[in-house]
Amino acid sequence: MLKNKKILVFMVVVLSAFALSACSTGTTDKSSTDKSSDGSSVVADAVNSFYANMPDDINKIDQVAFVDKVKAGDSMTILDIRSADAYAEGHIKGAISMPWGPKLADDLTKIPNDKPVMIYCVTGQTAGQTVALLNIAGFDAKSVNLGWNLGISKVEGVDAVIDKTPTEFDASVDTKIDPDIQKAIENYYAGLETATNKNYKISEDDAKKALDEKNATVAFLDVRKADDYAKGHIEGAVNIPFGKGMEEQFSTLPMDKTIIVYCYTGQTAGQTVAGLRLLGYDAVSLNSGTGTAATGTSGWTNKGYPLVTN
């Protein structure tokens, strides 16, 4: 009897040790870029904080106000993320060329974080993505409304602050970025090389085709205001208005589909796409959004495609 009790005690000890080992090892791999259920990852926390603390200006600056700041000589870092050729043809005085793509991730540490960062692209969409990524990395970044083509170039008197002389980064700057966030942003831009939708954007025609074919691998997300969604939206789209607290509804989105995000012109959709992709979603923004007078022939409604109210 005593011998049997000793055997029983031994087995209990062994099984307990095995259980403790399994618990400490864990069964779920939560990498820094995964959408973890408890929001514990560094990247997920930073993404959720970005939306939870969204400022009233939604990280955008009006193109006229931006040009006025340049004329006034306000202290800020200006990033031109258009192509190097476009930059060479003419850019805002003092702007640094930082073309959209992997180089943006490579040069993050060269951007000073002690003053505002203003970013512009061609029409605002890729600047929207970049602004979100930079804010998540700890910068105070804003995109210039409607970018160069639709915004800045149309501001009265802008010629006074257009230059062709390149501006370089200050070599003494070495901004510290959290390594997990740095890696996530590097992966974000590296993914452009193999992405089906280049620039993480989708054309109006391709989006309409997916809708008409009732493509089950695609879902539409409308981030416009609820009132505008009610007045008309793309068929089947769900509405999560862009702004503070929107991250609380991300868990309602499907992880197994491509999410086509749209707003009015594509800029806040760009910010949304950046955060969703860092959380593990396959998200792309609809080119030029639903479309406005400013986007001309671009945009869903400007293409003649319908919106529904049901």
TrEMBL record:
Which InterPro entries does its entry note? GlpE_sulfurtransferase (IPR050229), Rhodanese-like_dom (IPR001763), Rhodanese-like_dom_sf (IPR036873)
Q: Name one Pfam family in it.
A: Rhodanese
This protein's source sits in the domain of life called Bacteria
Task: Provide the coiled-coil residue spans.
Answer: none
- Protein name as annotated: Rhodanese
Answer whether the UniProt record assigns the keyword Signal to this protein.
yes
Organismal lineage = Bacteria, Bacillati, Bacillota, Clostridia, Eubacteriales
KW Signal (keyword) present: yes
Q: Where is the Rhodanese domain?
A: 72-160, 214-309
**Signal peptide start and end residues:** 1-21
**Keyword annotations of the record:** Signal
